[in-house]
From TrEMBL:
GO (cellular component) term, any one: lipid droplet
Membrane-traversing stretches: 44-66
Catalysed reactions listed for this entry: a 1,2-diacyl-sn-glycero-3-phosphocholine + H2O = phosphocholine + a 1,2-diacyl-sn-glycerol + H(+); N-(octadecanoyl)-sphing-4-enine-1-phosphocholine + H2O = N-octadecanoylsphing-4-enine + phosphocholine + H(+); a sphingomyelin + H2O = phosphocholine + an N-acylsphing-4-enine + H(+); 1,2-dihexadecanoyl-sn-glycero-3-phosphocholine + H2O = 1,2-dihexadecanoyl-sn-glycerol + phosphocholine + H(+)
Role this protein plays: Converts sphingomyelin to ceramide. Exists as two enzymatic forms that arise from alternative trafficking of a single protein precursor, one that is targeted to the endolysosomal compartment, whereas the other is released extracellularly. However, in response to various forms of stress, lysosomal exocytosis may represent a major source of the secretory form. This form is generated following cleavage by CASP7 in the extracellular milieu in response to bacterial infection. It shows increased ability to convert sphingomyelin to ceramide and promotes plasma membrane repair. Plasma membrane repair by ceramide counteracts the action of gasdermin-D (GSDMD) perforin (PRF1) pores that are formed in response to bacterial infection.
GO MF assignments: acid sphingomyelin phosphodiesterase activity; hydrolase activity, acting on glycosyl bonds; metal ion binding; phosphatidylcholine phospholipase C activity
Binding site for Zn(2+) 1: 172, 174, 244, 426
Cofactor: Zn(2+)
Stretches assigned to the Calcineurin-like phosphoesterase domain: 166-427
Protein name (Swiss-Prot/TrEMBL): Sphingomyelin phosphodiesterase
Amino acid sequence: IDLRTLRKPLFKYTSCVAHTHPVSQTSCWKLKVQCHTRAFTKRLVCLWICGSVGLCLWICGSNVFFNHFQDSVNEERVAHVLAEACIRMHLAEERVCRNITELFRDDVIWALQKSLLWPSEACALLVGPSCGKFDLYAPWNITLPKVPKPPVIPPSAPAAGSPQNRVLFLTDIHWDQEYAEGSAADCKDPLCCRNDSGTPSWRRREAGYWGTYSKCDLPLRTVEHLLQHVAKSGPWDWVYWTGDIPAHNVWAQTRAQQLSELTVITRLIHKHLGPNVTVYPAIGNHESTPVNSFPPPSEHGNRSSAWLYNTMAEEWAPWLPEQALKTLRYGGFYTLQIQPGLRLVSLNMNYCARENFWLMVNSTDPANQLQWLVQVLQASEDKGEKVHIIGHIPPGLCLGSWSWNYYHIVNRYEGTIAGQFFGHTHTDEFQMFYDEETLTRPLSVAFVAPSVTTYVNLNPGKKGSLEEVTVC
Ligand SMILES: *[C@@H]1O[C@H](CO)[C@@H](O)[C@H](O)[C@H]1NC(C)=O
Ligand SMILES: *[C@@H]1O[C@H](CO)[C@@H](O)[C@H](O)[C@H]1NC(C)=O
Ligand SMILES: *[C@@H]1O[C@H](CO)[C@@H](O)[C@H](O)[C@H]1NC(C)=O
Ligand SMILES: *[C@@H]1O[C@H](CO)[C@@H](O)[C@H](O)[C@H]1NC(C)=O
Ligand SMILES: *[C@@H]1O[C@H](CO)[C@@H](O)[C@H](O)[C@H]1NC(C)=O
Ligand SMILES: *[C@@H]1O[C@H](CO)[C@@H](O)[C@H](O)[C@H]1NC(C)=O
């Protein structure tokens, strides 16, 4: 992690600039939304947050606030204007803009209401600190136990003959059920190579049989072929699978589809790798619908993530012990012992993500996940156990406070954390951690694996690694 990037403003891709214009005798707000990112869903969420706040000011005047959203007529108006904005800003084609607005609308407006954003906070968000205090993503600190950090032992290569394990690392499968060979590989939608991407003309490329270098995900045959190949290159001692099962058709996803894709891919992996290979999954940001929508466990009822986490617990039960399933159902994270001397922690990185609009309600250590991680790491340190951490979004891409706290934890437990494995970026990378005092001594590394999907313009990837596990 480049520490400098963490110091950037929390609203990295969002800057809302508002001007007041005296029009006759009333004040009218003019909103300029700048979303500094090219990624479609990020721009959309940015537009939603900035746009709803601005529109609310515009519709309701600057004194009255989000309780007016409860009025369904206003909700309707806001949704309509946001869909129009999406179309006019050319974020996507009209039908995509309209469908995604419908899909996000209820949850985003609910979260905005619950975020208790008052006029002064909205003003601070829009205009800056001169007119109010805005601390939705206020800084926070986890508490470390009083146990002093053990002396640092410089790393050394394992002795010859140390036990070795072969670990397979899969991430970002993104299976597209509607992938259609021969359809247009270039289109205006966030996802192409489908029958409704339009017909390829002499100028436009066609979707291939196995996949395409374009904005396309994969047909099931390619996923299956990859799994067959992977099974043949075994034996594997275990597998890390760091999420993102569904395709990028984020404007048209239903809970039923997401769950059916989760089930199909889980069973396919189980079938190809066999019952003797344990797979340890982590939850990606695309598992939910609307995409990135992961309410913390304090949200109950039909809006909660219970529909998703409960099905995951059912499907992953052959791989995970009961205690792990319990925390999976609660917050989508878990820990278990892989073998004596080695523990795994699977984090739900959606609780660190800028794009998870539920964090507008409360971004302080959602689900108490990092405080829980500290407890797990302390217990492992006490036992002399090593720990691997897996998750979907790499920690360097999280909200500032979450990233800083995670960095701090990695510093404290550098002697215990033996490996970190993430996905999400679709490319083969790593992020470095340095000592906090001097920022010169590298002390940990997070490996980021390439995606299985070709989205965007990639070859399918997987990683196999030889883990030397030194049991102390
Ligand atoms: C968090 O800890 C840092 C470093 O010790 C300190 O500077 C900061 O004020 C703390 N922040 C909060 C919100 O407690
Ligand atoms: C796409 O259209 C073709 C031709 O009409 C049809 O055979 C195919 O089943 C369709 N594919 C999907 C995924 O709907
Ligand atoms: C958009 O929504 C309409 C109505 O709900 C639906 O008929 C249509 O299939 C959706 N379009 C896409 C591209 O998903
Ligand atoms: C799984 O392991 C058991 C016990 O070691 C063995 O009998 C069985 O053949 C293995 N199954 C497969 C599919 O490898
Ligand atoms: C729960 O929410 C989903 C998605 O918003 C919706 O389709 C479903 O109808 C809701 N169920 C109930 C019982 O309200
Ligand atoms: C936010 O969540 C944290 C931890 O989950 C909790 O301690 C805190 O009280 C919450 N803050 C508010 C304003 O609800």
